[in-house]
Amino acid sequence: MVQSRHPRAPSRAAACTAAAVLLAVPAVVGWSSGATAAGAPAPPAAAVLILPAADGPADPEAAKKQIEKNWTAFFDPKTPTDEKAELLQHGDLLKLLLNGFSAGAEAAKTSVKVTDITFTSPTEGTVTYDLSVGSETVLPGSKGSVVLEDGVWKVSFETVCELIEASGAEAPPLLC
């Protein structure tokens, strides 16, 4: 193993890279350091670079539509287990859990109504929903999480574990 005489070299390299990126921004957007070419307009006195928000997907309305559709289908007792697996984070690995989750008389009467969706990042969000069994709303205003996996907005594995815990049922060992 070779030891560096400069233990802070990696952080210096990162700082230099960050500085280079920051210094390149004016050139990319057509600003200069104050010197202007003949006939070129001078840069504004105080320029502000506006970047897109990093707290949601590029098309939030389309994402919300897909989330509501997928969330509702996931909790619909008529949705086949294979299709539910496609709507659950890591669902391809959790078909056994889904079979157990869908079993029972109560599950056959379960439905959800999505009431709100907020994004916490371009690939994650919080879903507020009402969970009903038959005509009774048993978990009003519940919160769950949604994740973008392989281009599909899916119910998070964490949400399913929270629902299993809230039901009093035991999750299979090592799953939740």
UniProtKB/TrEMBL annotation:
<keyword id="KW-0732">Signal</keyword>
<comment type="similarity">
    <text>Belongs to the MTB12 family.</text>
</comment>
<dbReference type="Pfam" id="PF26580">
    <property type="entry name" value="Mtb12_C"/>
</dbReference>
<feature type="signal peptide">
    <location>
        <begin position="1"/>
        <end position="37"/>
    </location>
</feature>
<protein>
    <recommendedName>
        <fullName>Low molecular weight antigen MTB12-like C-terminal domain-containing protein</fullName>
    </recommendedName>
</protein>
<dbReference type="InterPro" id="IPR058644">
    <property type="entry name" value="Mtb12-like_C"/>
</dbReference>
<feature type="domain" description="Low molecular weight antigen MTB12-like C-terminal">
    <location>
        <begin position="61"/>
        <end position="169"/>
    </location>
</feature>
